[in-house]
Structure formats: structure tokens, C-alpha cells
Amino acid sequence: MLVELLLEKSPLDVKCGDVHSVVLCSTGDVYAWGSNDYGQCGGGNTGSGNMAVVFSPRLVNFESYFRPNIQHISCGSEHSAFLDDVGRLFTCGRGQSGQLGHGSFADEPAPVYVSKIPDKVNEVACGEQHTVALTLKGEVYVMGSNTQG
């Protein structure tokens, strides 16, 4: 069932965090599954125990935004990042170290636009508790933990 669903959607890329996985499809849709304790699967909710686990691929919920055409994905330990075709960066999941780039340490159960980057983002990469964004102008923005430099 899992493989059939994803194959029908023509997967282009897959990324894995410590406890969750994200797949980007040729349609720009994104599916996620695994632990969702902090909202890293982007479904718009979190839970505890079995409620915090997404057992099969679920469409990532970009409800607050006009259907972005996602072009790039990345996963940190317990957060996810999504980059659309117009250079907007969205993040969700654990925000304990500020890795979501929203100017707070709050967790986000659904993707939120990172408005603090003044230019279009060209590439994104997530580490365990940080996120790095490269803009079209060649500027690098780093968000999150700096405990390891």
C-alpha cells in the first residue's frame, strides 16, 4: 500500500529525519510519515503515544497558503523544511532551538512561511537542530542551535 501510493505520485526526492520521512512528488505534493511528536510530518496536529505516529504517508498540510509548488525538501532530527518554486521557505516540527526560523522556540504542527529571510531562497538543508538557507543572492542564513559551532 505505501509503495503503491508513492509510486502513483511519481516520487522525486526522499529525506529522512531521526524518526520521520518526507517524500517530494513530481506534482509538488509532499507526503510524510513517522513520529509526529512536534509536528514534523506537517499534518497540522501533534499527539502523544500512538496519536503522535503517522503510520502511512500523509499529505503535508499547506492549508494556510495557496497551494505552494514544493521543489525541495529537507529533514532535521525532528523538523522539516520545504522550498517552493518562487523561493519561499516553509518549516514545521520542533522549534526548541529556533531551527524553524520563525523568531521563537515554539513547535509548529503545520508548515509556516519563514518571513525573516529578505530574499528568495534557492536551497535549504537541515541538521539535527539547525536549518541553513542559501538565497538567490548567495547569502546564507542559519537558524537554530549553535552549540557545536
Report the uncertain regions. none
The CATH topology assignment is: Methylamine Dehydrogenase, Chain H
Helix content: under 10%
Estimated structural class:
mainly beta
Main sheet makeup: 4 strands, antiparallel
Helix tally equals 1
Mean pLDDT: 89
Number of E-type strands:
11
Q: Which percent band covers the strand fraction?
A: 35-45%
Write down the overall geometry: globular
**Spatial strand order of the main sheet:** 1-2-3-4
CATH class categorisation: Mainly Beta
| End-to-end Cα distance | 43 Å
Using only C-alpha atoms, the radius of gyration works out to 14 Å
What's the topology here?
Blueprint lengths: L1 H7 L2 E6 L3 E6 L4 E6 L17 E7 L10 E6 L3 E6 L4 E5 L14 E6 L7 E6 L3 E6 L4 E5 L5
Antiparallel strand pairs: 1-2, 2-3, 3-4, 5-6, 6-7, 7-8, 9-10, 10-11
Protein described:
The chain is mainly beta and 149 residues long. The chain has one domain (2-144): Methylamine Dehydrogenase, Chain H, CATH 2.130.10. Helix content is 5%, strand content 44%. It has one helix at residues 2-8, and strands at 11-16, 20-25, 30-35, 53-59, 70-75, 79-84, 89-93, 108-113, 121-126, 130-135, 140-144. The strands form three sheets. A four-stranded antiparallel sheet has the order 1-2-3-4, with helices on one face. A hairpin with a 4-residue loop joins strand 6 (79-84) and strand 7.
Task: Based on the model shown, name its key terms.
single chain, 149 residues, mainly beta, Methylamine Dehydrogenase, Chain H, 4-stranded antiparallel β-sheet, 1 helix, 44% strand
